[in-house]
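Run folding on both entries below.
>entry_1
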Amino acid sequence: MAEITAAMVKELREQTGAGMMDCKKALNETNGNMEEAVEVLRKNGQAKAVKKEGRIAAEGICRIASKGDTVAAVVEVNSETDFVAKNEQFQQFVEAVAKQAVDSSAADMDAFLSEAWIEDGSKTVQEALIEKIAVIGEKLSIRRFERVEAAHGCVVSYVHGGGRIGVIVEADTNVVNDAVKEALTNLAMQVAALSPKYIATDDVSEEYKAHEKEIIAAQIAQDPKMAGKPEKVIEGAIVGRLNKELKEVCLLEQVYVKAEDGKQTVAQYIAQVAKDNGADLSIKRFVRFETGEGLEKKNEDFAAEVAKQMGM
């Protein structure tokens, strides 16, 4: 049996919003497995706000580089501390990495790190990274990149929170003007704020739907108000809750954040922009990077570290 620490209980509580004792019980049931404990809390209806992307743990920033209206690339580069993430030299390096990515033909990170460095072709990206680590004196990591090129339209980008979140939206459109690009930028801001997982419900995998239905069914089974209800009623409730969730995770189904009536969906907003500009406009793809998502951050006691270095 794994030891269940206070830190583990605290982390699970932060992720789910469940009570402390419920979190401890779930961790005991799952032998300390955090993901399984989240599932237990969800099935028991105790998880109030699961952060599906994982808590933000690593430091660093995202940057985006563009070439005209058709090509953009987003990168995430991590550092050990927030102090370095705010360092001008580090930020300039990340901007150079983004420029590297926008011209890259690499299919994966290994290939990307092996490319000739954009600022000095005599060295690779990996060698440039190692040199920067030596200069800054802290471990750095080029974690990921994604390049987007529009074949029949345009791309727009948006960076939030000084680089905490980077978003690229690609659209198929026969009209590329300021109004269309402004609308797409608004959608990029929506993606940054509400973190959808899919463009439309048609894009949602059957595996995802089946998994969520299982969670919802377990929640309903523990709802006293649903006790003794006919199977048809229960099935209807499951489908209803699933459809409500899909509206939250699918961009086009979400309520547009700037909707004046508070009801207009993103799909309706896009249709209105298309009509106003005589455009054939649709959202093809979006990419959203959030710094540190899925990574675990060290709990550092800087006072203790300084005392240790001073021999206190």
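>entry_2
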Amino acid sequence: MKLAFGILLTAVVLFVFGYIYWMVNPLPNQAMNSAPDPNAAATAVTQQFPESGVYNVMQSGTSAMVIVNHGVATEGADPMAMARGFIHYLVVAVILAIMLPNGARVSAHVRRGFIVGLAAVVLIEGSDVIWWGYAWGWKLWGAGYHLLVFVIGALVLSKFLPQDPDLVV
């Protein structure tokens, strides 16, 4: 029961952290380029990509990956996306609970979260830059966020894992 509560609390903490990092913090979005004419760009996207989805365009030296979400509110957060995001954090918390060793010090949990997070960030964010041409600035914000999710998640969850009283820091 204690571990289940810890997993739930970890998911809540990560959800709040993610909201603050991506929705409140203006800095990550400043790492992206803006279209010179957003209205014309939106019209072109609607005309060329009538269905929501991910499109890859490669034509004579130009490539683009376009992510289209028709019908998404421009103001506020989509409640269904928020619900799916919370479920996602629950899954991450369960994986962390499986990955973190019982009886270890909090510092060992945080170190393991950092190392696993770093490996994931290097693989996933690095692959996006190398193979898909994502901008470094944008991916660095993603890398920082994902690494912190592992560290914060490990820190919170470690308080709910069985510990050896002789090892607790």
